[in-house]
Amino acid sequence: MQFDDDARLDTSEVQDVRGSRIPGGKATVGGGIAGLIALVLGLLLGVGPDQLGLTDSGGGPVATASGLAQVQQSCRTGQDANTRDDCRTVAVVNSVQDYWDQEFARRGGSYTRSPTVFFSERVGTACGSATSAVGPFYCPGDRKVYLDLGFFDDLRSKFGASGGPFAQAYVVAHEYGHHVQDLMGTLSRSQDGRTGADSNAVKVELQADCYAGVWAHHATTTNDESTGRPLITSLTAADIDEGLDAAAAVGDDRIQARYQGRVTPESWTHGSAAQRRQWFQQGYRAGDMRQCDTFR
């Protein structure tokens, strides 16, 4: 995956609070299998930490700004995105949101842009306070995506993905798939409390995978506002394979087999590795969000 060196990155779409101090009580995540299950529930899930029992037990205030502002200082052009992980993520956020902005307009609608918040260790959100153990998540309460960039290392070391730049892009695009669902009113269907292979929770996750694939289909043809040219200039078959591999690595069956030693479909919240690959690939091949109706 390559970016146009001359493109200007829009860092206003990323809030960098890495290094912020978060006062108040400690966020609670259970240890052992319980902690891993909490991580699995939070991983790429379209709900906030309050619904996972990960809210701040002390009820204290949380920090919302950082003096570091690393991305604003360092991530200015597509060339920066080709050399730095955080700048690459900024560029992916720009590309994903450019696509959905244009797609909503093409369909006669209006897309509301959502910031991604870079944090480290712990963060406060409208959905509660959470630690990095939750993994990336979308909070419908403030319509923001939250991401500790250290998760990309976990994707390889804890979940067995091969990694790579497009594996990271898939994670970001999946979370923005939840934002699209939120804008369209389908995200709430996941919050009926049910789990299992045929639950709405799984269908919502698979649809977000499909939406990530739809963006990937259009990534090299979606024009960047600063140049009038595509921000992403090259996306290869090997890149798509990285995305498919990452999608499979976070399948419920893979994670359960790795950490529980058994697979229990009745507790699934995201879908199997095969399903996640299938729906990402479906979106990528079709390039049409109408082909992402996992509820049908």
The whole-number mean of residue pLDDT values reads 84
| Structural shape | globular
- Rounded Rg: 18 Å
Strand order of the largest sheet: 2-3-7-6
Count of extended strands? 8
Element pattern in H and E: EEHHHHEEEEEHHHEHHH
Number of domains: 1
Strand content: 5-15%
| Low-pLDDT segments | 23-68
How can the largest sheet be summarized? 4 strands, mixed
Structural class: alpha/beta
Helix content: 40-55%
Q: What separation lies between the terminal Cα atoms? A: 33 Å
Supply the number of helical segments: 10
Structure description:
The chain is α/β, with parallel strands linked by helices and 296 residues long. It has one domain. The protein is 42% helix and 9% strand. It is built from 10 helices and 8 strands. The strands form 3 sheets. The chain has a 4-stranded mixed beta sheet with strand order 2-3-7-6. It has a two-stranded antiparallel sheet with strand order 1-8. It has a two-stranded antiparallel ribbon with strand order 4-5. The protein is globular and about 50 Å long. The relative contact order is 0.16.
